[in-house]
Amino acid sequence: MSIADFSSTPKGIDNTIFVHSSFRVSSTWIWSKFRNLTDTISYYEVFNEGLEKFDLKTVSAISGDIWKSNHPIVANYFIEYLPIIKDGGGIEGYEKSMSVDSFIPADGFYGSLSVGEKNYLERLIQHARANRKIPVLTCTRTLGRIEAIKKDFPGRNIFLHRNIFHQWASFSSQKINGNPYFFEKIEEMIKASRHDKFICMIDDWYSSRIPSPHDESFFGIFILFHLYLYANAYDSADLVIDATAMAKDANLRQSVEGYLSEMVGSHVDLSDARSDFEFSLVNVRSHQFFIDTINQFTKIIAGYCRTEKSARFIESMKSDALEEWQRHEFYARKSRSFYTDRILECETLLEQEKAAHASVMAERDQLAERLATAPANGGGSVCAES
Question: What is the pTM of this model?
Answer without folding.
Answer: 0.85
